[in-house]
Amino acid sequence: xxxxxxxxxxxxxxxxxxxxxxxxxxxxxxxxxxxxxxxxxxxxxxxxxxxxxxxxxxxxxxxxxxxxxxxxxxxxxxxxxxxxxxxxxxxxxxxxxxxxxxxxxxxxxxxxxxxxxxxxxxxxxxxxxxxxxxxxxxxxxxxxxxxxxxxxxxxxxxxxxxxxxxxxxxxxxxxxxxxxxxxxxxxxxxxxxxxxxxxxxxxxxxxxxxxxxxxxxxxxxxxxxxxxxxxxxxxxxxxxxxxxxxxxxxxxxxxxxxxxxxxxxxxxxxxxxxxxxxxxxxxxxxxxxxxxx
Length: 293
What we know:
84% helix
């Protein structure tokens, strides 16, 4: 009988150690789970804030794109107004070109003082840089003389008529209106692009934080699984421990000619039933289960 008692005492001691180990392991995993839940929630909160900032920039971008569209309409209207005034002035000065066709049948643009001056300046710069040599040099010199003559004659004609484009108040106002509209388009487009760039930056941060939150969630699932596994081992250890304690108690009762202690046994059964049904026991109750013998 002493060997029997010694064997059971040894098994009870081993199971008690295992139960303690699994309880501590489970509690450790549960603490880690709590930390990961907190970290994951923090990342998710940051994701929500970043998404809100991204949405603000998106709304700002759409708002400025709408402004760009409106400003482009005004710029087009101003450009049309400038063209109409210039065409009217050219018609009054006799500068409106006839409906001529070019070598390929295309409609030629009217010759104006501005177009002649522009061509003259371009050829003069090219000539000074030495871009025209040989036979081409003579052709360019001839063309420059022709342009200079045409420009001088056109200026004399305009002076005789007493007005130039720059002196025309309506044309100046129309040009200013066009320039202001163009500047407004540029500013609105720049603001829209800036909002778009900021939105992309916020979206990039959203993706980073979301991946961090997902990573913590994956860790959380693993720690919960480990905690559940340790808890299952703990329950098995307790059940084995109480089975040995029941046998030891029954043996002692048989030797003394007494029955088992019903009150303590009922209390153990109550705690085990509560535990197996999924209820949470306090640390004191769990340790008490290991002390019953």
